Amino acid sequence: MAQAQASKFKNPLVNWIDSRLPIFTMLDHEYNHYPMPRNVNYLWAFGAIAGIMLVVMIATGLFLAMQYSSHTSLAFDSVERIMRDVNYGWLLRYVHANGASMFFIAVYIHMFRGLYYGSYKAPREILWILGVIIFLVMMGTAFMGYVLPWGQMSFWGATVITNLFSAFPIVGDPIVTLLWGGFSVDNPTLNRFFALHFLLPFVLLGLVILHTAALHVCGSNNPLGIEPKGPQDTVPFNPYVTLKDGFAVVVFFIVFAAFVFFMPNYMGHPDNYIPANPLVTPAHIVPEWYFLPFYAILRAIPDKLGGVIAMFGSIALLLVLPWLDTSKVRSCKFRPIYRQFFWILAIDGLVLGYAGAMPAEGSWLLIARIGTFYYFFHFLVLLPVLGKLERPLPLPNSISEAVLKGGAHAKPMEKA
Amino acid sequence: MRALKTAILSAALALGLAGAAQASEAVHLDKQNWPHSGVFGTIDKAAAQRGFQVYKEVCSACHSMRLVPIRTLAGIGFKDDELKALAAGYEVQAGPNDAGEMFMRPGLPADRFPSPFPNDNAARAANNGALPPDLSLIAKARVGGEDYIYSFLTGFEDPAPAGVNLMPGMNYNKVFPGHQVGMPNILQPDGVTYADGTKATVEQEAKDVSTFLTFVAEPHLDERKQMGVKVILFLLVLAGLMYASKRKLWSTLH
Ligand code: HEM
Fold it and tell me: Start and end of every Cytochrome b/b6 N-terminal region profile domain (chain A) (predicted)?
């Protein structure tokens, strides 16, 4: 059919394009009319916030890259030149460095939201799995970004983390050599990390587009965890959710700005203002705060290979989460027992994070071990078993009913 | 709004972790009231100028400040001609000239502060094997920042407390990790004569040079905070407007 499609837009140029490439129809459909459950709360804004943070990171990163030199003899000084001499270079760098932390805060809240309201359950498994992959790629990106200023923590963090791979039998050492581009962390390592750090955010962008595509197939979950039954249960995305998310974004940016302008180095480590020195090991090598729970798991296991497997396993586990949770009820609102364990898991994460920042010895090591055990126990034992034993509370008939009448009317629910 | 509160609370908790990362390394520091701390705090320029005098007359014999261009001092009130005169007092290497030779010329404000030693080995050789670190970023490179520097400079004890066995050439310091430091107790009462008549006690000198080192580590500190106040005020107003319009819009739903 060599005939352009008919489109409905007033602007003739938009119409002309749209009848040949229907991106405007697509956007209109996905972001104007897209039906959102009317009862979503502010926790649903963190996906949008994470998306905006990704854009902020790409934009600031691009301009930093224009001034940065990825040679070991220049990297540290080039970052200082950005801080001192480039117009608003200090602003770019502090936004980028604190932005990474804020990005992780947004994504951690986003993930725990999913855990609490059961957003990973059918039919949203692929959406969730894409999320976990995004999380993994984000961690890789952030790790390599932290190496670029070539300070003491950059160098020693890179040394410790890349060395982990050597724990794997046979393939371990070749992998490490490949990561290093030689036989120690050195100039080739820095160069390839820079190249990858530039590339991965665009991979993330692609993954986020897939993530949103999957989301728009089944629609957003909501605090009640039941599907909308019709238009009375939803609102059009625009303007209702755009305004609501917009407000949340601004509040998030206030916190972000407080860090950038008033305590820009709070989340960093002072040692990274000392140029990298392969001959001097810092007293404590600690990763960035957002890796601390995983670092605690790594060090909790007395065996190196075991520690590496536990660390990667703790994230890989999330990939099969939709099948570990045997309960049909999504939202914690209706799972009185699981709800308690959800909060214990959240506290466990914080405890692990704290233990990860402490030297791995004495009582902190013991705490890290208990925390690690509990983490796996939660996902591998509690979740599958609870789904079978727990008696959920009665679910409301529909979202609008629950919203308008306070959720009092509900039909009794059989043991799920 | 409850969800928003939960979110903010969890963010605050997560950030506590960042603090925890540093808590493990705490030493007891002699904390000072810095005019540049807090949201509206700015660098005390007079103090920073005195601090520069201390750096120039005392510390620069051993410590470099290689990342800092001389013109940076405009930020603490040096005028153009003062900067030119100051820079001209330094000799910097330039070249090669037409004959292919390197030569020395008087410094310019765009030059960085010249280093006292040609390389690290020379610096060590002159200091009993200890390397005096570059001071450009020292205020950001130590846990405790300017409070650490102040406590370090005022924390020497001579003779060392009973029972401490100092290694040859080492000095006792209360806050330095391990307490044995290769730097001598360098600040003396009236070790410098301040042009503005301020009495040069050891505490005064330490405080001034710590202020100066904070400034060189973060030359845009004042500009950053001033911009921050404006940005946050703007965002607060915007948040208010967004919230009001969101409320108005959602109230039409039944
Ligand atoms: C670059 C990072 C990410 C971005 C930009 C992003 C973006 C989004 C957006 C815009 C939404 C729709 C709004 C919302 O429901 O919050 C969403 C939904 C969702 N995301 Fe993400 N996401 C990211 C990472 C993750 C991760 C790491 C996970 C989990 C491992 C995840 C799991 C989910 C789930 C399950 C939903 C559907 C939630 C529901 O409808 O209840 N996302 N994401």
Answer: 13-224
B12 in contact with A, Cβ within 8 Å: no
Q: Could you give the residue range(s) of every CATH 1.20.810.10 domain in chain A?
A: 25-281
Question: Looking at this predicted complex, what is its ipTM?
Answer: 0.91
Instruction: Please tell me which residue of chain A has the smallest CA distance to B224.
Output: A261
Among residues B224, B197, B145, B94, the alpha carbon closest in space to that of A258 is found at B224
CATH 1.10.287.980 domain span(s) along chain A? 286-389
Among A216, A227, A304, A328, the active-site one is: A216
Superfamily per CATH, domain A286-389: plastocyanin oxidoreductase (1.10.287.980)
Residue of B29, B235, B248 to mutate, testing the A interface (most A Cβ within 10 Å of its Cβ)? B235
pLDDT string in tens for chain A (416-residue length): 455 566 688 999 999 999 999 999 999 999 999 999 999 999 999 999 999 999 999 999 999 999 999 999 999 999 999 999 999 999 999 999 999 999 999 999 999 999 999 999 999 999 999 999 999 999 999 999 999 999 999 999 999 999 999 999 999 999 999 999 999 999 999 999 999 999 999 999 999 999 999 999 999 999 999 999 999 999 999 999 999 999 999 999 999 999 999 999 999 999 999 999 999 999 899 999 999 999 999 999 999 999 999 999 999 999 999 999 999 999 999 999 999 999 999 999 999 999 999 998 999 999 999 999 999 999 999 999 999 999 999 999 999 888 776 544 444 343 33
If one residue of A211, A218, A314, A318 were mutated to test the ligand 1 pocket, choosing by the most ligand atoms within 8 A of its CB, it would be A211
CA B58, distance to chain mean position in Å, is 16
Which whole-number Å values give the CA distances from B35 to A15, B32, B145, B189, in the listed order?
Answer: 61, 9, 14, 23
Output the CATH code of domain B25-68+112-245: 1.10.760.10
Mutate to test the interface with B, among A81, A289, A342, A352 (most CBs of B within 10 A): A289
Q: Which candidate in A101, A154, A166, A220 is catalytic?
A: A220
Domain range A25-281, CATH class: mainly alpha
Closest-CA residue in chain B for A238?
Answer: B249
Between CA B201 and CA B208, with CA B203 as vertex, the angle to 5 degrees is 95
A71 annotated ligand-binding residue: no
Q: Kindly state the helix (H) or strand (E) to which residue A236 belongs, with its residue range.
A: strand A234-236
Instruction: Give how far Cα A396 sits from Cα of A36, A340, A372, B147, Å.
Output: 18, 21, 37, 59
Give the DSSP letter of residue A326. Answer: -
Q: Could you tell me the maximum CA-CA distance found in chain B, to the nearest angstrom? A: 88
